[in-house]
Amino acid sequence: MADLIPHGLAVHLIGRASTELAQALGISSVPLESADCAIFMVSAKDGIVRADSDTWLLARELYIPSIVVITDLTAENETDFEDMAAIASRILDPVVTPYLVLHRDDATPIALIDLISQQIIDYSTGQIEIRDSDLEHQEVIAEFREEYAEALLAAGDDAFENALLYPALPWIEGSRLGLAEIALYLNRVPLTR
Fold it and tell me: How far apart are CA 3 and CA 23, in angstroms?
């Protein structure tokens, strides 16, 4: 994964499971003031702690591009990805969800659906498999897709890079679900610091 992250990118990670994500990405966390990007880990099980929301405010003051990474997405949790993204939007700032999480019949998260391309990114086999979604999926995501497209249009080009648009992305350590998508956003961060 380290070869997918720009060399020299300085990332600040905060929250539960940040050490595990840093290890999975092959990076080390730096202090927020010297970061090119911040990743805020938000647990679907435990929510957002006050100290993390205070750090969020500092990242906003410093105009540091920020990603909200939602963890603890299990079949046992009552709070799912979409619910936790909505909570993050109320506690932090409005976030956008470029992907939605797809589940097995037993509610285990196994794949993502890209709201722009409408492709399914399947993590269920241990390898990333990308395929076209079917009409049923497209109908289910239509409203989410429209909301996301409107948010992108309103925010303008380079809104994420300019710390004005905050994506919420899922991450499951065991299956690596969401890891490649986090890396895609990290690749968009300008190395300016």
Answer: 13
Could you tell me if 163 and 152 are in contact, meaning their C-beta atoms sit under 8 angstroms apart?
no
- What is the structure's pLDDT at 4? 67
**Which residues are within 8 A (CB) of 40 and not within 5 positions of it... i.e. 6 or more apart?**
14, 15, 52, 55, 56, 59, 66, 67, 68, 69, 92
Tell me the average confidence (pLDDT) per consecutive run of 10 residues in the chain, 193 residues long: 70 92 92 96 91 94 97 84 95 96 90 96 93 94 95 92 96 94 94 66
In the chain, where the domains are located:
2-186
Q: Are 77 and 128 in contact (CB under 8 A)?
A: no
Tokens linked to 154: 């309103």
For residue 96, the model assigns a pLDDT of 97
Side-chain-side CA neighbours of 5 within 13 Å: the count stands at: 20
Whether domain 2-186 has CATH 3.40.50.300: the reply is yes
Per-residue confidence (pLDDT) for residue 193, from 0 to 100: 52
- What residues contact residue 134 under an 8 Å CB cut-off, 6+ apart? none
User: What b/e sequence results for 129-153 when a residue is b if at least 16 CB atoms lie within 10 Å of its CB, and e otherwise?
Assistant: eeeebeeebeeebeebbeebeebbe
Predicted pLDDT of residue 1: 47
C-alpha span between 18 and 71 (Å, rounded) = 10
Q: Which two tokens stand for residue 171?
A: 């991450």
Round to whole Å and give the CA distance between 13 and 178: 16
